[in-house]
Amino acid sequence: MKKSTVFLRAVLLFTVFLIPIHSFAIKKVGQTGLQFLKVGVGARPAAMGEAFTMVGNDANAIFYNPAGIAKMQSKFDVFASQTNWIAGIDYNAAGLVINGGIWGNFGISVISPKYPKIIGTRVAATESGYEETGDITPTAFALGIAYARALTDKFTVGGQIKYASQNLGSTLFADSSIVKNRVSGLAYDFGTIFYPGFKSFRLGMTISNFSAQFKYQETAFQLPLTFKIGFAMDILDFGGEHADHSLVLCFDAIHPRDYTERIHIGGEYWFKDMMAVRAGYKFNYDEEGLTAGIGFKYYGIKLDYAYSAFGVFDIVNRLTIGMSF
User: Is the Cβ–Cβ distance between 184 and 165 less than 8 Å?
Assistant: First the structure.
């Protein structure tokens, strides 16, 4: 089969998948827990509209498609990122990938939200109908171990096992009994990337947050399981040699457990592998949409910034610093 035919069929399949996305009404909201696992981390992916399923080849890929770390050529790559989220919430994340040569590449990821204090209350026979029980400071984190390997020069696979935990404080009942509202358990990510041989075009899929049910008290819930398919390509390949420049365009179609289908599109332009300009858009969101950002790389040191429009919540800023050697 000709390479151009493979390319056209892949694009057609992806397009057919996208057609019905906007024909559905919003539904399934509020059916999953541990929502911090859904928040995108890393300024580079965020600036590209989080259309990063087929783009990542550094430590950022652990959070979007672990198969991507198999393409990392340096000995190691590490980053730390902070996201100024809405409602006074901050997300701190970090990732590390080590090149294991013929044994594949290994990664570690961590994400830890920082929540503001919440005033605890309980129902009581008072004029207001409740009484305060003291401040509550929720905590959460996820720690993962990833592995990826190129099975051939065209096909890579990767996965991640992560331990996720969330503590919503304690409940003080009228009889003075205390119940701790804490859940924890394992979740799994898996992804693939396939290079059919048409220039730099690649396509693949990923599944994130696959797990058993978690449970607070009497109510069980699922994690935010998400299925994605995507493709990406450096469109400057059509113009021949372009050693000093690259312009990657990427498209992701997302099927989340707790929402209708979504589309992420993005792009990243690099000049001399030193400065990057990025932009993207996220479709079928209540508030999110336009994203943009810049990045710099100098002697292995990387600095990235991302801007994300967030409707009535104003904007979300992300800053990432990393190293690659």
Answer: yes
CA distance 171 to 177: 8
Q: What is the pLDDT of residue 301?
A: 97
- Residue of 324, 265, 271 lying closest to 295 (CA atoms): 271
Query: For 5-19, 49-63, 168-182, which range has the lowest pLDDT when averaged over its residues?
Result: 5-19
Pairwise CA distance, residues 2 & 92, whole Å: 46
Write out pLDDT tens, residues 143-158: 999 999 999 999 999 9
Closest CA to 25 of 264, 251, 286: 286
Q: Determine phi and psi for 214, rounding to 5 degrees.
A: -100, 165
Q: What is the pLDDT of residues 205-256, one digit of tens each?
A: 999 999 999 988 777 889 999 999 999 999 999 988 888 899 999 999 999 9
Q: Which two tokens stand for residue 92?
A: 């701190």
CA 314, 223, 260, 17 torsion: positive or negative? Answer: positive
Sign of CA dihedral 45, 47, 49, 55: negative
CA gap 299, 296 in Å, rounded: 10
- The two tokens of residue 304 are 């990235």
Residue with tokens 């992420």: 264
Closest-CA residue to 231 (of 14, 3, 65, 49): 14
Which tens digits make up the pLDDT trace of 94-105?
999 999 999 999
Nearest to 201 by CA among 193, 189, 213: 193
Single-letter code of the amino acid located at 80: A
Which CATH architecture describes the domain 3-324? Answer: Beta Barrel (2.40)
What pLDDT was estimated at residue 26? 52
Confidence (pTM): 0.87
Partnered with residue 205 across adjacent β-strands are 192, 229
Average pLDDT over residues 128-137: 80
62-91 per-residue burial string, b: 16 or more CB within 10 A, e: under 16: bbbbbbbbbbbeeebbbbbbbbebeeeeeb
- For the chain, which residues make up each domain, given as ranges? 3-324
Q: Which two tokens stand for residue 84?
A: 């100024």
